[in-house]
Design a protein that fits this description.
The structure is a homodimer of 338-residue chains.
Chain A: H1 3-9, H2 14-21, H3 29-42, H4 48-55, E1 60-66, H5 73-88, E2 92-98, H6 101-113, E3 119-123, H7 130-138, E4 142-145, E5 155-159, H8 161-174, E6 180-184, H9 190-205, E7 215-217, H10 222-233, E8 241-244, H11 247-259, E9 269-274, E10 290-293, H12 296-311, E11 320-323, E12 326-328
Parallel strand pairs in A: 1-2, 1-3, 3-4, 4-5, 5-11, 6-7, 6-8, 8-9, 9-10
Antiparallel strand pairs in A: 10-12
The structure holds a DNA duplex (16 and 16 nucleotides).
Keywords (chains A, B): DNA-binding, Transcription, Transcription regulation
InterPro entries (chains A, B): HTH_LacI (IPR000843), Lambda_DNA-bd_dom_sf (IPR010982), Peripla_BP/Lac1_sug-bd_dom (IPR001761), Peripla_BP_I (IPR028082)
Pfam families (chains A, B): LacI, Peripla_BP_1
Chain lengths: 338, 338
DNA sequence: CTGAAAGCGCTTACAG
DNA sequence: CTGAAAGCGCTTACAG
């Protein structure tokens, strides 16, 4: 049933029905109530494509993941939060996966040109990110999950990656650790650079010099955590503590420590950054893992919120947040063995 | 730039341009080439909302997750596969999250009435699933990930859950295990029922009687696996083997075994169902875990494919598949200790 | 507060 | 093989 038919059935004009249903003020309350009730009863819903064509709004927000393979646990938590928030405003999420950066760029061009989305969520930016420049040029509104540099201001939400890893490093240094290894993410991205800066800054505070053999990076997976830790443990002078960029890496690190006949927490201290996976709680690991904690799901919700505001006309430079990260000391970080 | 402007710029009618761009046959190859090239150069893309309104197709497929919180690692792998496949046909994925079953039902009604999607992916069906009946009534095409009973046939892809768990159970029985525990999923769903049936059938083959204290269920998370295993190990006569419904549960189970001062694989054998998470490989665990393996990502791709076919007019009853599951014996299943 | 009419940007019978 | 025109189902100035 379309608007015309519905309107005639309840003896009103299409105009009035349309206005009543979109919550415009210039309709009498009784009329609106009557329309809404009739819509419910008769099962009328505006055709979304027609609505979009008429308003020029897509009613959807896009997010593209590079490497279908990289759509992992972090993405899913983030998406869960994003979707929860956008649902409130009836905004759809349009998910695309691409393989390369060029494809990603092409995807944004396509989304913009075909007016398929009203805005886009960009994640894991590099320090100077092409994609940001592109979106600004295209005039496609966007919110960045992470930080970057650009001439024009843009909306973003980031966590305090510098502070998080600095505090973790400091905590270990205070416990007497001198050889602290660090498993970082892809070093092209801002978050990895910030974390590394935090790590180095805290080392310096304690008179320690960064040792490149103790700094490694890769995907945040169990497997990579395992491999990198095996390398660390094979060094002539292995670390007594490891900072892992994700709970996933921490799982692998702990496994490698055990395989080497050592005891995680006792022989090698562990701190992990915890994005808070409901199915993988650091308290439940053995030993309970000290973490820098910042729920990625909450970030997803907030970014959804920021996107909505952006579409309502708020200025990008008023939509910029950096969230603090909490260090939660548990059982996996003990004083260095004498 | 819209069609009219673009067409006039290249000196053709809107009709011809439209036909050339949608790949209709009745356009001269040279004309088509010229149009496509000009579109590329001038950056013209059809407005997707207008296209949809005119064709009556939404160009999107919906999937709804109950409990934003349940959007976990299984969902994300599945989505990765689905998205990879649908991208090929330019079909968007529309993700919704809801909290209750009523909300989910309402979501389908909304999607159908507003013509927001052309089809829907339904997952984790129960044995007689209301949602299936609803979608059939609404006339909204759908593909089910899993199996169910219904009067009218429908498209589905399921794995052989019965066979998978039966084989796992058999394998353990052959190794001499007599007390085999089973961590199952939500028992309302078909897959859990099938798995339980497989478990019981294989026990029976070996003259074993199911013991309800050894059959437990819950979410497929590390935490639940941990708790349930702690219960098992606290029994007067604890199991010598555990079958876990997911790698996530297996992680928790192994942790509980260790916490109890026992050794996974040696003291308590472990088999896990492995949906194949790229970041959590059973070979890399210690001990390497015996699994029933069936990649959920591949299932997502295939279901995307089936959805496309369904929209092309293939009959639901020609789109029904059950995938075999492979038992991969590794180190975590050893003969029972004397 | 309500309605008639134009317009959003496409597709697609129909005619040539 | 190409084009003029109607139609998809809404929204929204404009007029009353």
């Amino acid at each position: 049933m379309n608007l015309k038919e519905f309107a005639s059935r309840i003896g009103l004009s299409a105009t009035t029905v349309s206005r009543a249903m979109s919550g415009y003020p210039e309709v009498r309350p009784e009329t609106r109530a009557r329309v809404l009730e009739a819509a419910e009863t008769l099962g009328y819903r505006p055709n979304i494509s027609a609505q979009r064509l008429a308003t020029g709004r897509a009613g959807a927000i896009g997010i593209v993941f590079q490497g279908g393979g990289r759509f992992g646990p972090h993405s899913s938590e983030f998406m869960g939060g994003l979707s929860t928030r956008l649902q409130r405003d009836g905004i759809d999420i349009l998910v695309s996966t691409v393989e390369t950066e060029e494809e990603e760029i092409a995807a944004y061009r396509r989304l913009a040109a075909s007016k398929r989305v009203d805005a886009v969520i960009l994640h894991t930016p590099t320090c100077r990110d092409k994609r940001i420049a592109l979106l600004q040029t295209l005039g496609l509104p966007f919110v960045v999950h992470g930080r970057s540099e650009a001439k024009k201001p843009f909306a973003f939400l980031d966590i305090d990656n510098f502070g998080a890893i600095a505090e973790a490093t400091r905590h270990l240094a205070v416990l007497g650790h001198r050889r602290i290894a660090f498993i970082n993410g892809d070093t092209a991205s801002t978050f990895a650079r910030d974390r590394q800066d935090g790590y180095c800054a805290a080392l310096a505070e304690h008179g320690l010099t960064p040792d490149s053999t103790l700094m490694s990076h890769g995907e945040f997976t169990d497997e990579t955590g395992f491999r990198l830790t095996q390398c660390f443990l094979g060094l002539p002078s292995p670390p007594t503590a490891i900072i892992a960029g994700s709970m996933m890496s921490a799982l692998g690190a702990m496994r490698a420590i055990r395989v080497a006949g050592l005891s995680p927490g006792t022989d090698v201290a562990i701190v992990a950054h915890d994005d808070v996976f409901p199915y993988l709680s650091p308290e439940n690991l053995v030993p309970a893992v000290t973490t820098t904690q910042s729920p990625i799901r909450a970030a997803g919700e907030r970014i959804g919120d920021m996107a909505v505001r952006l579409l309502q006309g708020e200025e990008p430079d008023s939509l910029q947040e950096v969230w603090p990260v909490e260090l939660i000391v548990r059982d996996s970080t003990r004083p260095v063995l004498a």
